[in-house]
Amino acid sequence: MTSILQGLKEAKTGSSMFVALEDGGEIIGVFRGKPKVYYQVFGEPKEYEEPAEGRTMRFKINFVVPEGTGHTAKILNSGARLSKKLLAVEAEYGLDVLYKIKRTGVLKKTSYDILFKGELNKAQLEAVNKVKLNPLERVERPNV
User: How many angstroms separate the first and last alpha carbons of the chain?
Assistant: First the structure.
């Protein structure tokens, strides 16, 4: 079976479940499912449902990407700045399209860009919708 995202380069994403880009890394895929919003203290793995002093807003969402000759859902885990960018591109293009995510920087000086890459045809969209999504509840993020 050929990938619905045929021709796209498979990114090195670290963990098999998470998008884990290094400085200068990029990945192309399709956002899927409803994001999970939570709060976290920097450097700690625990997730909180409510905001509080010292906690920052975080979110997770599934991102369908090429893998081998097929495709899989990985979890994109990020913060408020990327959340605002995602809301802006969603308002402009919707989520049923290809996006490129690019990482620049390390630790607290990391930023991400989201760029529109192209439309999906009906068959591609149907195939994307068949990809099994990862659960977003209480998934421990690896140390990266």
Answer: 32
Burial bucket for residue 71 (CB in 10 Å: 0-12, 13-18, 19+) = buried
Single-letter code of the amino acid located at 19? V
3-state secondary structure of 4: coil
For the chain, the domains span 26-34+61-129
Q: What is the CA radius of gyration of the chain?
A: 15
- Name the residue with tokens 């880009």: 21
User: Which tokens sit at 104?
Assistant: 């620049």
**What sign does the dihedral 59-135-19-31 (CA atoms) show?**
negative
Question: What residues contact residue 40 under an 8 Å CB cut-off, 6+ apart?
Answer: 46, 47, 48, 55, 56, 58
The pTM assigned to this predicted structure is 0.82
Provide the β-strand partners of residue 65: 72
pLDDT tens, position by position, 93-132: 999 999 999 999 988 788 899 999 999 999 889 989 999 9
Burial readout 41-60 (b: 16 or more C-beta within 10 A, e: otherwise): eeeeeebeeeeeeebeebbb
